[in-house]
């Protein structure tokens, strides 16, 4: 039995749920999200919670049950609160700025790196060395953060590059005489 799947997903106020075939749809203040439960689990919507149950007693169905519950929980959190990833830029002359629908990064290359901000994602630069990525879809927010980080990954000697705010870089000792 899935311990995660057993837990009901609470529905906060301001979020409405509907079941259309095998698709769960949630609407909230930050938008609308949907999850297709095709073959993973069956859902039962109550007034203040969503309960998921496995389709059969097979091992495969048990595994998918917990995954379906996690997807529904992320969907509810996304339309009610949203997800945020924070990135930090370290390095002399390294900075970021949002210009319209583009994120402009100066990362020590001979040219600026321009990143087109995808639809449904909001990027803010409160400081030139801090990037905040916000959105309703957890997967897309993480993917955008990973793409931005990939432009200049942090190096282990001086720590220069783009890193997650909670990430720690293992530093190496430099060359000795």
How would you describe this structure to a colleague?
There is one protein chain. The chain is an alpha+beta fold and 177 residues long. It folds into two domains: 78 residues, Outer Surface Protein A, domain 3 (Alpha-Beta Complex); 82 residues, Ribosomal protein L6 (Outer Surface Protein A, domain 3, Alpha-Beta Complex), CATH 3.90.930. A hairpin with a 2-residue loop joins strand 11 and strand 12. The longest helix is centred in the middle third of the chain and has 22 residues. It is elongated. The termini are far apart. The mean pLDDT is 91.
Specify the helix fraction band: 10-25%
Q: How would you write the strand order of the largest sheet?
A: 11-12-7-13
Mean pLDDT: 91
- Can you tell me the CATH topology of the largest domain? Outer Surface Protein A, domain 3
What are its keywords?
177 residues, alpha+beta, Outer Surface Protein A, domain 3, 2 domains, four-stranded antiparallel beta sheet, three-stranded antiparallel beta sheet, 3 helices, 13 strands, 22% helix, elongated
Q: How do the helices and strands line up, and which of them pair or pack?
A:
Blueprint: H1 3-6, E1 9-10, E2 16-20, E3 23-28, E4 31-36, E5 41-45, E6 49-54, H2 59-80, E7 83-90, E8 95-99, E9 102-106, E10 113-116, E11 121-127, E12 130-135, H3 138-150, E13 161-164
Antiparallel strand pairs: 1-6, 2-3, 3-4, 5-6, 7-12, 7-13, 8-9, 9-10, 11-12
Give a summary of the structure in a few sentences.
With 177 residues, the chain is α+β, with helices and mostly antiparallel strands. 22% of the residues lie in helices and 39% in strands. Strand 8 and strand 9 form a beta hairpin.
